[in-house]
């Protein structure tokens, strides 16, 4: 970047306001990826904001429901889930579901929100996850999971917004007049990643994750039991944390953690497995 001491230079803010911003493609993605960690941090008094990129209007089996009606239903479900978790703020960007691209408009919307909330940590989809396919030679009856294009687009939009635009005084200069100063995000936590290096012990809040997911009635029906599947998965992740890092947890969420800014006072050497 340029000369910070040049006449008229605008300084980049490095002091966070919020602890975390979770950016998911659809209503329910943040729930699957980070609900228990969000609830844990909220319980610890940390400020957490969730952002939903799309309007969620393609997440259903009934073509006859009008888009606006469906969008509002899903937003309401997301607000209820956030309330269960203690997440105070939810922002809806309402880009068309199923058609999200890494566009100028999408990147700018994220730059604005990150500069507004100044989260220390940003959570989002790992954009490098695309094809999760078992080998048909060894597992002939298993099917693949093709990661949703909106998930990949969200990851790319967020990463491209964070670098360089969020912290660049010459990017989106019109935002400066709105008081949205350039800001440096400290850490990224990518969820649904193949390169996990961080486990969060969510034993305390795993039940809230199940409860939050059950708020998404348009997705799972009114009588869904999300607790069993969520706990099974979180227990598997905890076993993986034990095998890989010797950590003792009953239920865990897993992330690829990436450091982008280390405040000068913080020691440089830090264990990669530091919890919450
Ligand atoms: Zn999704």
From TrEMBL:
GO MF annotation list: hydrolase activity, acting on carbon-nitrogen (but not peptide) bonds, in linear amides
Organism domain of life: Bacteria
Name this polypeptide is given: LmbE family N-acetylglucosaminyl deacetylase
Organism in which the protein naturally occurs: Thermosporothrix hazakensis
